[in-house]
């Protein structure tokens, strides 16, 4: 560098450097300006006319253009550290000729006085000096202690910064931009809540192909049916590279599609049964006018129902459904749904059915009605206390047996335990204006009020009935002998209810759900993306839904979504009792996958709703209900 033209080897003292800068400024002004000291617009500069236009201390070769003087190239000795240093250090020389680094105001003023910097540099230095002098010695000492104590480190998850020493938080840590989006990760849900409702259709979509789920080979289908009957389950890896060539996956998928049904009529779809008159219209129903055929069908149906309850009681069948033309019954084994005893849920119900169950001595509860009453009492505690005092006063006044019975009926407000403050039974008298002229007996008004409230629950989700323990056996006998479980007229006349179960039982027929895979193109922004879909139709049981989603996890590499279509009357089957006793019964022999049993054991958490959407992203579930 010392041999290149235009380089000054006497680069020693700051004072000498500043004198060279002032000399260059005077030579540029004398050579490139007019007589008055200003640039003349009429005489443009020439590139090689005046060597004084070139900066003699600029290192490197000279670059000149036709329109101006020599240009200073970037300092080759500059780096990021000294150009972006927060505190500028000035070099001063002591008497021995050695350089020292100092940032004191006195050193800066001395360097400025010796160098004789130009006006702009002086202004900058004056601003820095005024700022530094404004700080007191205490503030300077505090800043030194903070800067020496603070040290940023990574935490264990390498996502957030921590300070090992010192209590002062950095401004960078307080700003939202300092925290990376990956540091606030959503919780990983490897399981979704149990859904006890019956599904009529499932629609799965995934960016990966789902064509492996249809058209199984004969050997794969046979193996899947055999594994279902023997309650054997295959162990699949966490992720599959080629699901279509995995025979174990395809066999396990066929196994998950199996369910058992009674009765079985190939030309008629026996699910769903509620509001399904159109599916029966125009179909051959030879039992409609044949009484002996109807009796034969009911005998076989009674045997199958008794077999199912025996399996349920022995914990060899986890649950089963009874689908009639006006209601659906879900029987669950002990240990499922958070109950230590056998439970049965009936929905929807009518006043006539509840009265008939009471006549048979079946004790039941209305979970949703009790929940509504408790929430109402919790919101109005004063009113609830007043009702209790009134209840005690009425109990004291009821001395005669008949009068006591009337009082008890009035307190209950209905045999279903559902009572309200408003009396709409005699609203027509109020509209006519004769309510004061007619004397109403107390017992009759109480009875009319009770009937009005109980009838208002009919065919609604709030009419769901829960039966527990030994009363479930009485309920089985009631359903076998009850004539209202079979339609007396219409397209379903004389046809017994449909029995659905995940395990084989006496008189049952094995059925499989229908699966169909389709590849479609979906528009994402301005491009089209290939999306594979899988549609499954039929009476989809809770264990089947869980097994299918478990198989889609490794085959789709933890990325898929599902739309669930629920049979509306069964959505309320997710209702849980207020006082639920946890069950720890052994269900290892019920025939379900252990993961499915584990999912169905806790109390239902969906309330009176059912799942409508499932989404798995990076092996984590999200859902909507």
Quick structural overview:
Keywords: Developmental protein, Nucleus. By secondary structure, the chain is α+β, with helices and mostly antiparallel strands.
Task: Furnish the topology, listing elements before pairings.
Layout: H1 14-32, H2 80-83, E1 90-93, E2 99-102, H3 105-115, H4 119-134, H5 137-149, E3 152-154, E4 161-163, H6 171-174, E5 199-206, H7 218-230, H8 247-256, E6 258-262, H9 277-280, H10 291-313, E7 319-323, E8 328-332, E9 343-347, H11 351-359, H12 367-379, H13 381-397, H14 401-412, H15 427-432, H16 442-455, E10 465-468, H17 471-481, E11 498-501, E12 509-512, E13 514-524, E14 527-540, H18 542-555, E15 559-566, H19 594-600, E16 613-617, E17 620-624
Antiparallel strand pairs: 1-2, 3-4, 5-14, 5-15, 6-11, 6-12, 7-8, 7-11, 8-9, 9-10, 13-14, 15-16, 16-17
Helix pairs in contact: 7-8, 8-18, 13-14, 14-16, 18-19
Structure, explained:
This protein has 19 helices and 17 strands. With 625 residues, it is an alpha+beta fold. The protein has 5 domains: 14-134, no CATH class; 137-183, no CATH class; 199-256 and 512-624, no CATH class; 277-366 and 460-501, no CATH class; 376-455, no CATH class. Strands 10-9-8-7-11-6-12 form a 7-stranded antiparallel β-sheet. It has a 6-stranded antiparallel β-sheet with strand order 13-14-5-15-16-17, with helices on one face. Helix 13 (381-397) runs antiparallel to helix 14 (401-412) and helix 14 runs parallel beside helix 16 (442-455). The longest helix has 23 residues, at 291-313. The protein starts with 13 loop residues before the first helix and ends with a strand. The model is unreliable at 35-69, 95-99, 114-122, 149-183 and 390-423 (pLDDT under 50). Residues 412-422 have a biased composition (Acidic residues). One of its GO terms (biological process) is nuclear DNA replication. InterPro entries: Donson. It is found in: Nucleus.
